[in-house]
Structure formats: structure tokens, C-alpha cells
Amino acid sequence: MHSFQKTGGSHRQAKTCTSASPAVSGYRSGYRSVLVAAAVCLIVALSTSAPLEAEVPSFTVGWSAYAGWNPYFYMQKSGILKKWADKYGIAIKVQRFDYAASLDSFVAKNIDACTMTNMEALDMPAASGVDTTAILMGDYSNGNDAVLTRNGIGFDKIGGKKVMLVQKTVSEYLLERAMVLNGQQSKLSSLRLINTSDSDIAPAFMNNAANEVVVTWKPLVSQILGDQGVHSIFDSSKIPGEILDLLVVQTSVLNRPDGSGEKFAKAMAGAWYETMQRLTSGGPQQAEALKISAGASGDTVDSYREQLKTTALFSTPQAAVEFTTSPTLKQKMELVRQFCFTHGLLGKGIKSVDDVAITYPDSSVQGRKDRVRLRFDVKYMQAAMQGKL
Question: Please, which domain of life does this record's source organism belong to (predicted)?
Fold first, then answer.
């Protein structure tokens, strides 16, 4: 609300050795010179022909500043991620992006995994033909995403207004759901959407009184609400479970023949739930986790605690598995996929909502079975639940 290190050997160039001519000062000194030169050549030849050590499989996870994703920063900073990566003999790094840039990098296959919402997982990588698997169900937004206005503008006065948001993201979805639920669906086409990066949206809105409507997520929502005269007229607590925050992986990465993709997924699950345990357990470890996670987005601990109150974390693997295997997930995804199709977000040439299909842990499919592009997999969360990581 968010650089791939390719595995492969480096090569060393063999150096050419030539023996020096015997020294003019005498045969014995010249002979020793020849022997020394020959020995050097032999050592160099042996060193260059020795087999290279296999490089450790490396993976990069993209994340962006958001209450439910800031723990990825803590996960790396605390050493938890390295501990789990070492356990599986791999290397993992997390890399921060602006949200839209993280999606672009994932679609371009420059990173292996990325934090994103359920909607973006469907309308970005999946719609671009990148087969994608959600391996961690992190949370759902329970008030973190909001429609904010100034000058007392409500839904009855929103028609025709400019609206700042990150287009083709859950902000656009939230805006439409808000309009529909408030009986203003007929005014949707009159809104003028202004695509704005999440790194720019707060100052751009706050520094220009002519901007009257903005849709974004925390911590940006909290910053903007600090501006006198700005109010929230709708937030994601009105649509619980519809804006889900996931960790998704390229399915081709998970299916690597050497098995390193499976190890990566297991390491991420292990690291995530250890991080969640620290973040929610109380005591000194929780204090450290809150402080570092808050610092990831430049927030105070109090501000971050406030953000977490409107983040419905699936802090245990049991809770995550229960939601991911429930009929509720399918119901929410049906709303999301219909929105994406209606707004032309599923890609060029897509003539049916079923052309970008979703599969679930029970093997059921929404859409055409030969067109599955987004998969919800509980295997790694179940392994964490069963203590088998």
C-alpha cells in the first residue's frame, strides 16, 4: 500500500605464463629462475582450473510503506530473515519501493516476491500473464484506507470533483465501493481521477487547498487528517475483508527445479510468523519490533500503534489458514474480479472476467481452468501452523 540477484557462476580469466630466459649471470641462477617461473605457472593453472563454489540461491522481496508491511523491514533489521534464510541455505533481501513501482518491478520479473493487495495481484501481474501465487495472507484493511475530503464535502457534493489517488489500485476500488454504498453510483463517471504517487500524494494534497478529495492509505491518511478541515467520509472498515494484504511470489520461482523456490517460501513463512509473534506478544521484543516497524515509514510508535488498530492482522498461521480456506475469500474476490473486469484492468483483449482466473486451496476455480493466473496457496501457512517449517 509496494534487484534480483540472479544465481549463476562468475568466471575467472586464465592468465598466460611465459618462462624467463636464463639469467646472464650464470646457468645455475637461470635454471632456478626457470624452475620458479614453472612453479608459478603451475599454481596459477591449478587455481584457475579449480571448480567454483556454487553460489547460494538469492531472492528479493519488494515492499512498500504500510502498517501491515512495515514488519518486513523489521524482519530484515532484526536478523530474523537471515536466520530463516540460513536454515534453508539461501539468501533473501527485502527492498523498499513506492507501491506502484514495486508492482511494476514484480511484473517485469526484476524481483521474486512482493507485498501487494488482492486486487493488485489480480490486475497487475495476473492480468499481465505473470502466473502469481499468494503464499502469505497478512491482514485486511479495517480502516487503513480512506476517502478524505475538505470543505465539508460529502458524497452528495462529490460529483464532478477531482480525486487524487494512485490509480488502478485499491484506492480506486474503495472509492467506487464508497460511491455505490452511499447511493452515488450515477456520479462515478463525473469524477476526475488524478493519478498521484503514494510518495507525493500527502504533501500534494495538503499544500494545495484547491485539492478537495483524496483517497489513500495509512500512514498517509493519518498525516492528511492532521490538516485542519480534512475529514474521512468513508474507510475500509465498511468493507471488511475486501482489501487483503498479501505476499505474492512468481509461481515459476516457487517451481524452480532445484527446489530453492520452495525453500524460499518456507523461509518467508517462518520469518513472518516469528515476526508476528514478536510484534504482538508484549514485552521488550514487542517494543523493539514496534519501534523499528514504525521507523520504516518515519512514524512514531504511538502513530504506528494507531495504524495497527485499523489493520486486521492474521498474526497466527491458524487465523490466516482459516480465512484463506473460507467461503468468505471467494465472495470477496468475486467483487474484486468483477470490478477489475468492468474497469478494463485485466489486460487488453480480455473479453470475459473468466479469462483471468483464480484458484483456491480446495482446487476450485473462479474463471476458466486453463486461464488460472492467481493462486491462493495455504501450504506454507499450514506448515507454520503444524510446526513443520
Answer: Bacteria
